[in-house]
Write a structure and sequence with these properties.
2 domains, mainly alpha, flat, about 0% strand
């Protein structure tokens, strides 16, 4: 399995609370993740055997794991931008909204972010 695919699977598991612990103690979870890992490995090898370029392979793996060719982070950022554009918020409210949704907590106008 390539570093990209391994990292993608790691991010997928990391965004699910308690998944890493469940892999150690829950045989069903372990079996499901192992099946996903093997599937991704087989897809990656098949794409390599067919001579598919690396950037296309990455998009295919992202599509299999996240449902989007850009992956989880890019899709989430794009959705945030679309929400902000739909509401047409002033800049200071847009910055506050981004801070809240990026996990930084609320930021008052004129206050430094901690």
């Amino acid at each position: 399995m390539s570093e990209f695919t391994d990292g993608t699977l790691g991010r997928y598991l990391g965004q699910q609370p308690g998944m890493r612990q469940a892999l150690l103690h829950d045989a069903a979870q372990h079996m499901q993740v192992e099946a996903l890992r093997r599937t991704l490995d087989m897809v990656e090898r098949a794409l390599d055997d067919e001579g598919v370029p690396h950037n296309v392979r990455h998009r295919v793996i992202n599509r299999v794991v996240w449902g989007e060719p850009e992956g989880y982070v890019d899709v989430r950022a794009r959705m945030q931008e679309q929400v902000l554009a739909a509401y047409n918020l002033p800049t200071e409210l847009t910055d506050a909204w981004k801070a809240i949704h990026n996990g930084a907590g609320p930021v008052r106008p004129g206050e430094e972010q901690t």
